[in-house]
Amino acid sequence: MVKRPDSRRRSEKSRRAIYDAALSLVGEVGYPRTTVEGIAARAGVGKQTIYRWWPSKADVLLEAFLDLGERVAEEAGQQPYRIPDTGDLAADLKAVLRATVDELLDPRFEAPSRALAAEGLVNEQLGREFVAKLLEPQLQLYAERLRSAQEAGQVRADVDPRIALELFVSPLAQRWLQHTGEISHTYTDTLVDYALHGLAPR
């Protein structure tokens, strides 16, 4: 008896090929010149396969990005999209920001990430999807960790966590996007220290 191919395995293989093709293409030629046809050709699938799973190239890329983040975290032995709560706020923030630096400097992530971020500035729809599906969920994790610190008495009760998180997240993003300086573990550790302890003499 001839064994039938496992359609689930075949579908997963195609999905992975599409993710990889989408990320590599947007890094090579930019978002505007990346097409569903190009992704399909690079992945070795028909474009109808892509449209069966995703309504647009933006959806393909955003899902590929989420998948890439999960893979990078797994390779590093970390839980994707999680901020630890060990009771030491500074240590927890430093740990997750160090992991973010490693991800931003990972060649697999950097080129497509820059391409999508740049396109999001001029393409309002893509920008909104990028924020809603990728950025905002991660920012919410920072806000939740800061609220936990408030409950533990480690952060003032009158502090708005959503604003406070920008003290260390936004400078890192700006430096990385605009090449205003190197990003490193030392840099993000310093951001956390400045954010939590301020600039006034102790």
Give the strand tally.
0
Number of helices: 10
**Tell me, what's the shape?**
elongated
- Say what oligomer this is: single chain
Distance between the termini: 78 Å
The CATH superfamily name of the largest domain is Tetracycline Repressor, domain 2
In the CATH scheme, the class of the largest domain would be: Mainly Alpha
Rounded to an integer, what's the Rg over CA atoms? 20 Å
Largest sheet: none
CATH topology category name of the largest domain: Tetracycline Repressor, domain 2
Order of helices and strands: HHHHHHHHHH
* Helix proportion range: over 70%
**How many individual domains?**
2
Mean pLDDT metric? 87
CATH architecture of the largest domain: Orthogonal Bundle
- Structural class, judged by helices and strands? mainly alpha
What percent strand?
Answer: under 5%
The poorly predicted ranges are 1-7
Folded structure, characterized:
The protein is mainly α and 202 residues long. It folds into two domains: 9-64, Arc Repressor Mutant, subunit A, CATH 1.10.10.60; 82-201, Orthogonal Bundle (Tetracycline Repressor, domain 2), CATH 1.10.357. 73% of the residues lie in helices and 0% in strands. It has ten helices and no strands. Helix 9 (166-178) runs antiparallel to helix 10. The protein is elongated. 23% of the residues are buried.
